Amino acid sequence: xxxxxxIRSSMIAAGAALTLCAAAAAAPPTLFPPNRLVATSYFxxxxxxxxxxxxxxxxxxxxxxxxxxxxxxxxxxxNLYVSCGLSNAxxxxxxxxxxxxxxxxxxxxVSPNGVTFGPQGELVVASRGNDRVVFxxxxxxxxxxxxxxxxxxxxxxxxxxxxxxxxxxxxxxxSVHRYSSGGGELPSMASGSLSGPIGITFSPLGxxxxxxxxxDGFVEIPKLGFEVWHENANLESPYGIAVGPDLRVxxxxxxxxxxxxxxxxxxxxxxxxxxxxMSGLGGIAFSPFYFxxxxxxxxxxxxxxxxxxxxxxxxxxxxxxGRMTLWFEDDANDDSDFASRFGxxxxxxxxxxxxxxxRTFCGAEIPGQSKSYRLTTANLKMTGSxxxxxxxxxxxxxxxxxxxxxxxxxSVYRATLKTKKRLN
Length: 424
Known about the structure:
This protein is mainly beta.
């Protein structure tokens, strides 16, 4: 295994702990343009943002508020959330390089690494310094902690499957740990090909992809069938992994300080972002398309009576990610408001279909312990065009969603969703 892992660990041990608290943005964040590739640069304390053709667009964190950035994810509200290993926090930043919040789960994070969003819009962070996975709500409260008894060791990146199972790359055990939607431990996964797992994601078809940093490749595990090993001579210590809007696989190659794009046959396509002043690449992601959306539907109770229930908000979708986010305006004085019943943020983990100008997304929110409703299905259709480098450009989203009550609540909600306009 390369020495950069131990170098980063020693830097984290030397970093001073900061006391940070959650901060809500005073104004809506400046949204990233869609289909931008973002990558963390650990040793320069920056996040680089690239155009489709690989040229540098801008850098974030230049004000000094990112300290050892490790991984990142786009949130339902349009901010980019960056885990910072040296400050023991996750920092929210927008395209204008504005710092819009800090989250440390009440001091529970130690050297945070992988970061994603759970089905209920909660921030989910791999706290590698104390071998935990921490769920953090919008008020910076740690609501759930995993890993205490599962043998999790130096957790890195993490991802939810289309079924809502949480997969965590455990570097110290050379395996992938799994947890159910309620936090229960599931059997871990090991692989003869896997060595030094760090990056982890799901393809649009639900295939699990794991970056294997110590032997310069990645493992693909289909839902059914045998695992497939992928490698390329240009890869050196791959950390972050993502599927792009062109459905190619992108990997952050730590030793070359660049992001490599591979064709479906593993042949080398192109290299993005080789800069002498970038060092320690980790997490990568593609910026979503954001749309203003409107929900209109009815809530049916057990007796068949119904009432109107809708909402206005924002939908985020990045083709290839297998993830769609919904962010709704919350009117506490309006019982017919979607957010008051179902929550302000919803993250759908599902499967994408189609490769042309029309694509589909079918997903579901997995229920947690604190919600009385479950979003059972979402069937959405994206229409658009094929732009530069084969990237899908989304123009509109339409479809339907349905929700059902949990426990003794037998009510059902059915609604249609449509986009009003694109926001970025």
